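User: structure tokens for this one?
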Amino acid sequence: MSLGYFASPWPCEDGGPARLQAARGSSALALQAGERLKWVTRNTLLSTMTVLGDPGEVYLLTHSALRAHLGMDTTACVERIDPHTLQPLQRSKRLPGGPMWPGGMAIHRNGDIYVVYGRHAHRLGRDCGLKATYPLPLHQAYNSFVVLDNGQIVTKNLSDHHPALLTVLDPDTLRPACADIPCPEASIARLSAVGNTLYVVGVRSIFRYHWSDAAHSLVRDEAWTWDYVGASTQSYGWDPVIDGQSAWFMDNGLHRYRINMLGAGVRQTPNRLLRVSLVDAQDHACVDVSGLRGGSITNPPLVDRQRRIVVGFDSANKVLQAWRIERDQTLVPLWTQPDFGVASHLLLYPQSGELVVNDYRRLGEEVVVLDIETGTERARVRSGGLTQGVVFPSVGWERDLYWCSMGRVARIFVA
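Assistant:
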């Protein structure tokens, strides 16, 4: 449990700032013979994620899009939705945003909801009423945030040409807790964190910062960095998963996504799964995911710490691949699912070994439950929507989950 967040089964994207994408405790779909998945869907503006508060509380983050095509700033909205019907029970006013990019939402340990969208940070009550807004320093899209164990909120602009800028906000005042911190390079990926240590994947290297009480600021760990691009022609990496021993992420993140990731790769090389030790950044390794040219992704891999399995994918070439992590951290191929349209953030139920992924086929998206040890399919449901989801699922309060796929939100449950 990350100490900066509210104690719910899923208080933020990916379930926590380490991005393990794993349900807590005994939560599981626990599919049995003769059971199947059913769904309820609702059309929305662009849905990004759901998070959970107290029992029965489900919050949905959406944002506008049309204004972006007109060269205007876009806005966001938070709703508390009915956990079964998905209909809004309470709704915020339109929240000032800025340039369009899926933002982020989390419930802080103080019980309030925080949103970063566009170039604004917002604090809301659990009734979705706005308490405070802070305009972030750059007129660019900010791609979400993490909460450190000390409660500080850290966000970053989406930057592919100029060095990214870290902003640390005090959760009580929603004002800067320290001076903004320039990164050594641009960064597209979302931030990750463990404790009071922040991990940043730049466009060519991964590096980290530790919060210093003495300096009252984030201080870069100059001894820990890895140039993962090196002499290769790979493009930038996406969000890192921090499993306690290593940071895991994938590269060739540059792509041409419109409504799906199929054939959307830009660099004519395979995308790679990358690992770097948290103890010694000189201990690093990479492996091709599919080995196919034009490989690309827009999201992180998934690490099952209990079973020592890592799952990666090549969205552009429709390949899903799992490896066993040996004790010396080498990878042994475990299973492959070819012709499998995975692009979204994933979801793992550690108790049952159920891995939830999307599969884009026949001009539509399906949500699939696999056995993480064998790759065997346990259940599948067509959740609706013509776009391939690239955003965030979450667990539910029962034997259910919530799936966001841009223009729709779905509740998927065991029947």
